[in-house]
């Protein structure tokens, strides 16, 4: 083998090793962008069906976004509900929906007409269904901090500093 040929072979071997190292690094250090949508629900199809019906009837979508859907004509800075079940418990949601004054549980910074309405007028079953569904709205761990930050900033209008 000539000297020039050896050099070419060594360079090719180095390139192959380089590509292998890069692939290993990328697969072990995925970026957030590669991971897809972080939100999911643990609800059964039946619970999803019942809760979606209530959600539509009660027009929650006028103020909240969920699964990236929201009424575009409304500009209420209410927290998004995606992943909310990783931040609060089913019991908390039930108490919140049942309270005649939800702002006693979660203070508001908004004008009265934009605040979370009381759903104490719904039947116990309906409030349970909504609470169970809210609790099923989960977020993957890698996006939990982002979700918490967005919620905090919507609720307080202040920057989140952990
Ligand atoms: C008029 C606008 C409006 C409507 C309609 C509305 N919400 Fe809200 N909601 C808010 C606002 C604003 C907040 C934040 C607290 C506040 O400012 O009162 C909130 C808070 C919440 C929270 C607590 C979020 C958190 O950060 O912990 C949940 C859960 C919730 N709403 C669910 C619902 C559901 C379910 C419905 C329908 C049954 C609904 N909301 C209807 C405006 C609304």
Please explain how this structure is put together.
With 162 residues, the protein is mainly α. 45% of the residues lie in helices and 4% in strands. The chain has a two-stranded antiparallel ribbon. Bound molecules: heme C (HEC). The site of heme C (HEC) has 28 residues, from helix 4 and helix 5.
List descriptors:
single chain, 162 residues, mainly alpha, Cytochrome Bc1 Complex, Chain D, domain 2, two-stranded antiparallel ribbon, 5 helices, 2 strands, binds heme C
Secondary structure category? mainly alpha
Return the domain count.
1
Measured by DSSP, the beta-strand proportion falls in under 5%
Strand order of the largest sheet: 1-2
What's the SSE pattern? HEHHHEH
Sheet with the most strands? Answer: 2 strands, antiparallel
Q: Which secondary structure elements does this structure contain, and how are they paired or packed?
A:
Layout lengths: L2 H26 L10 E3 L3 H13 L32 H9 L25 H12 L1 E3 L4 H13 L6
Antiparallel strand pairs: 1-2
Helix pairs in contact: 2-4, 3-4
The site of heme C has 28 residues, from helix 4 and helix 5.
């Amino acid at each position: 083998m000539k000297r020039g040929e050896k050099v070419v072979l060594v360079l090719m071997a180095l390139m192959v090793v380089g590509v292998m190292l890069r692939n290993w690094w990328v697969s072990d250090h995925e970026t957030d962008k590669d991971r897809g949508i972080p939100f999911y629900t643990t609800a059964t199809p039946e619970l999803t069906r019942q809760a979606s019906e209530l959600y539509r009837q009660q027009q929650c979508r006028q103020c909240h976004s969920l699964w990236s859907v929201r009424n575009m004509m409304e500009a209420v800075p209410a927290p998004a509900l995606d992943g909310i079940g990783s931040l609060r418990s089913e019991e908390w949601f039930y108490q919140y929906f049942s309270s005649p004054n939800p702002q006693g549980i979660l203070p508001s910074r908004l004008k009265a007409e934009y605040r979370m309405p009381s759903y104490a007028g719904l039947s116990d079953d309906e409030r349970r269904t909504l609470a169970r569904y809210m609790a099923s709205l989960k977020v993957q761990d890698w996006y939990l901090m982002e979700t918490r930050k967005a919620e905090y900033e919507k609720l307080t209008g202040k920057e989140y500093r952990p």
